[in-house]
Amino acid sequence: MPSPRTRRGGALLATLLTLVTTPGASTSAASGPAAGSVGHGSLSNAAEAITAGRELIQQARQNSDKGLLAKAEQAFQRAIDLEPGRADGYVGLASLALSRHHFQQALELGRTAQELAPASSQPLGAVFDALVELGRYDEARDAIEAMLRIRPDLSSLSRLSYFHELHGRLDLAIEAMEQAIVAGSSDVEHVTFARTVLGHLWLLEGDFGRARQVFDDALAAIPGYVPALVGSARFAAATDDWAAAQGLLEEALEAQQEPVVMVLLGEAQEVSGDLAGAEDTYRQAVVTEAAHRATGEAPEAFGSVLEADHGDPALALTLAQLAYDHAPSIGTADAMAWALFKIGDLQSAQEHADEALRTDTVDPVILYHAGVIAAANGQRDRAAGLLRASLSRSAAGPLRLRAEVGAALETNAGA
């Protein structure tokens, strides 16, 4: 995931896998042409340009520096200019489009790469990621099946795991991710990232011991690895070690200024009684997410939910509508539902909440939102079922979700 944007609830994996598991991507700092200005004349051959583009993406992820993505785009375009039939140039551009949430563009670029290299699994990875984000799950299933036939490796098996997770099949998601880790990679980060996703799945399953072991293993492999720090913080919060959770999140935030980490830190501060600090941290998250959009990222579900919870509900609805129109996935349907609920349109909120549940997701935030909305619409039994389901998965969600779900259950019981 993205920088690992550990932020996006059930969408932890989709965009990041193209960036992280593309064969040949480096986890080292960029050197040579990639570290400096990338212009039309500075890269003499296509292979060099591809390497430069991948290294620039890696730097952008590690440093949360969106400006490097424009240089990466130049590098991939340079590769295509030098060798128009070079599929990995289009895969690189697709990965950039995914990182900017331009999913239709990513799909088109992935399809172009697929036509140029029909025997390669790389283009299918970008195609799968785009189709998932567009909410076209049946087509995504076909893409991942084709990818697995070509090459059942860490990249394809990780995506298979994510597809199972989206459809609530946690046992199969865990099995596929374990197979992905066994398949391995020459790059330690690829395997380490897969481990953090496995830890997320164990949190969803409620097996805290296995989750902790996986996160510990990931941090042993790469000390200070942000996705593993965030996973460890979720584990600490689930076991009521709030001081440890706050310390881990502060360490993660020092490494990457990501809004999801800010929100989690704000929750830890709130639980510890530092309400003023929490408010400042939430405000920083809102401002930082807006800055991401200003760089050209299309609005998406996280930004809308962030505004609904900690910012402007009217803006939340605007962002949700834009995201949903652009990519009608279960995540954007949930964002629409929550924004509509926040402004009091309960009937429309219910319609979108139902849509967000269409894959049988076990995402605890989607379940929580749907439960609260069902309760507001007088559906007490359904609300209770959804809220209990959310509670059982709450360790993989926001740090305060367990308390919020508990409060919603009490309110619904007394209605």
Structure in words:
Helices cover 73% and strands 0% of the residues. With 415 residues, it is mainly alpha-helical. It has a domain at 152-256: Serine Threonine Protein Phosphatase 5, Tetratricopeptide repeat (Alpha Horseshoe). α6 (122-133) packs parallel to α8 (154-166). The longest helix is centred in the last third of the chain and has 20 residues, at 275-294. It is globular and about 70 Å long. The two termini are 41 Å apart. The model is unreliable at 1-37 (pLDDT under 50).
Name some characteristics of this structure.
single chain; about 425 residues; mainly alpha; Serine Threonine Protein Phosphatase 5, Tetratricopeptide repeat; about 75% helix; globular
* Major sheet details: none
Spell out the helices and strands N to C: HHHHHHHHHHHHHHHHHHHHHH
- Count of DSSP-assigned helices: 22
Distance from first to last alpha carbon: 41 Å
What's the CATH superfamily of the domain at 152-256, by name? Tetratricopeptide repeat domain
Rg, Cα atoms, Å: 21 Å
Q: What is the CATH architecture assignment of the domain at 152-256?
A: Alpha Horseshoe
CATH topology of the domain at 152-256: Serine Threonine Protein Phosphatase 5, Tetratricopeptide repeat
What is the CATH level 1 assignment of the domain at 152-256? Mainly Alpha
Tally of DSSP β-strands: 0
Whole-number mean pLDDT: 88
Morphology call? globular
Helix content: over 70%
**Percent in strands:** under 5%
